[in-house]
UniProtKB/TrEMBL annotation:
Residues 38-204 form the FAD-binding PCMH-type domain. Gene3D superfamilies: 3.30.465.10, 3.30.70.2520, 3.30.70.2530, Uridine Diphospho-n-acetylenolpyruvylglucosamine Reductase, domain 2, Vanillyl-alcohol Oxidase, Chain A, domain 4. This is FAD-binding protein. It holds the Pfam family FAD_binding_4. Keywords: FAD, Flavoprotein, Oxidoreductase. SUPFAM superfamilies: FAD-binding/transporter-associated domain-like. The lineage of its organism: Bacteria, Pseudomonadati, Bacteroidota, Cytophagia, Cytophagales. GO terms for molecular function: D-arabinono-1,4-lactone oxidase activity; FAD binding; L-gulono-1,4-lactone dehydrogenase activity. GO terms for cellular component: membrane. Signal peptide: none annotated. It comes from the Bacteria.
Length: 448
């Protein structure tokens, strides 16, 4: 959506009465996701400013989805009928120093929350590459960040509040609700409207990051675990050419007065002499500070600054998760497709994520490697490459990111989630008439 359109929509959201559709605010322009590749199926958008208004909207409509920050590349959050926006419900509700938790409105973005937490002496354990995403949306899709000992963003959730299909409000917590909680955190938007999230906190900390260039692929084969354990969070960026990793991004915590100087080489890669963008041709202006300059955790864990357009702008994204024990085999399997992949690729990123216990998480019960692809915006070509990648990753039962592009069949996807039947039972309990079902859920979770 263009900046002018966004401003008009934001103003209208603030001024429009409840239960009045925000339709045709800009004639002829449809709602799209941030990258512009996906056009949503309706512009019937209703704004809620309180839990009571959420309940009212949920009760009024037979079909409804939440429209969040629109960072997904597929139809997981789409609706042909009605959208509800919680954009104005984006406040910190309470900070519990004794419990080391914060409770926030679910539509709050990480980029909003993080500076507040830091000012109070707290931090989150992990952040995604982009700080622009909403907390509820990130957790619902198992969005992750990086680190061999770091779980994805949903692993910080201690409790959440959901408005179910009949307008009831349910609160689930890890401490009290067991399986229902483990099913509801990574919920794919299927259970209802998440209105509040409580997150576990830790003491604030400083970080720095270094970038190394041209890591030989042979070193990845021989020392993968050591390479990925070289920092609090490590990312490898590659175009799959020349038997090398283009860039290694190492993010490490600054402990006390430690003024450690970066080594000139890292497993054969050379320390960069200037800030770099993961896509070499692009300016590093919108990337977080590198060169070992210490800063707050929330200004180093993401790759991109909050105030800038994330990544490259017009792009497509795909991502597949494989067991970390199979990481090297999976990397080499994809590398064999380099000449098919590279013509359509901007860059790939390799990251590790620790295991969790959320039923529909891509890292459920398995420490994982995430193989990410940032594609040129050419779906006709990308749609031909994805089945090739999925075939190569078939031996590892790869799980695609819920919010990104994939072509895996419903039967194969479903077979990779052992708790899916139990998840469906909970969906039936929370949403017996399928109010929150959409085409994406019908085809992936309920398709054959």
């Amino acid at each position: 959506m263009k900046k002018r359109t966004f401003l008009k929509l934001s103003s209208a959201l603030m001024a429009t009465p409840i239960i009045s559709p925000l339709a045709n605010l800009v004639p002829g322009e449809k709602l799209k996701n941030w990258a512009g590749n996906y056009t949503y199926s309706t512009d019937r958008l209703y704004s809620a400013k309180s839990i009571e208004q959420v309940k009212e909207i949920v009760k009024k409509y037979n079909k409804l989805k939440v429209l969040g920050t629109r960072h997904c590349f597929n139809g997981i959050a789409d609706s042909k009928n009605n959208f509800i926006s919680l954009r104005e419900m984006d406040k910190v509700l309470s900070l519990n120093a004794a419990a080391h938790t914060v409770t926030v409105d679910a539509s709050m973005r990480y980029g909003q929350l993080a500076p507040y937490l830091d000012s109070k002496g707290y931090a989150l354990h992990n952040l995604a590459s982009l700080p622009h995403i909403s907390i509820a949306g990130a957790c619902a899709t198992a969005t992750h960040g990086s680190g061999v000992k770091n779980g994805n963003l949903s692993t910080a959730v201690a409790a959440l509040e959901i408005v179910t299909a009949n307008g009831d409000v349910r609160t689930l917590s890890r401490a009290k609700d067991g399986d229902a909680f483990r099913a509801a955190v990574v919920n794919l938007g299927a259970l209802g409207v998440v209105t509040k999230v409580t997150l576990n906190l830790q003491p604030t900390f400083k970080m720095r990051q270094y970038v190394y260039e041209n890591l030989p692929l042979d070193q990845v084969k021989a020392h993968f675990d050591a390479i990925m354990s070289g920092g609090y969070s490590v990312s490898l960026f590659t175009d799959w050419q020349k038997k090398r990793i283009n860039e290694v991004w190492i993010k490490e915590r600054v402990e006390g007065g430690n003024k450690q100087v970066a080594k000139p080489t890292y497993f054969g890669a050379t320390l960069a002499t200037k800030n770099l963008h993961p896509i070499a041709e692009l300016s590093a202006e919108n990337c977080t500070e590198q060169m070992g300059v210490a800063g707050p955790w929330y200004e180093r864990l993401p790759h991109f600054k909050m105030g800038f357009t994330p990544s490259s702008g017009k792009e497509l994204q795909s991502e597949y998760f494989v067991p970390r024990k199979n990481a090297v085999e999976a990397i080499l399997a994809v590398e064999r497709l380099r000449d098919h992949i590279s013509p359509h690729l901007m860059i790939s990123e390799l990251r590790t994520i620790d295991a969790d216990d959320f039923w529909m998480s891509t890292a459920y019960k398995q420490p994982s490697l995430a193989i990410h692809f940032t594609w040129k915006q050419d779906w006709a070509s990308v749609s031909k490459v994805l089945p090739m990648i999925e075939k190569e990753l078939e031996p590892f039962r790869a799980r695609p990111h819920w919010g990104k592009l994939f072509t895996l069949s419903a039967s194969k996807l479903q077979s990779r989630y052992e708790k899916l039947p139990d998840f469906k039972k909970l969906v039936k309990e929370y949403d017996p008439q399928g109010k929150f079902r959409n085409a994406f859920l019908d085809s992936t979770i309920y398709g054959s």
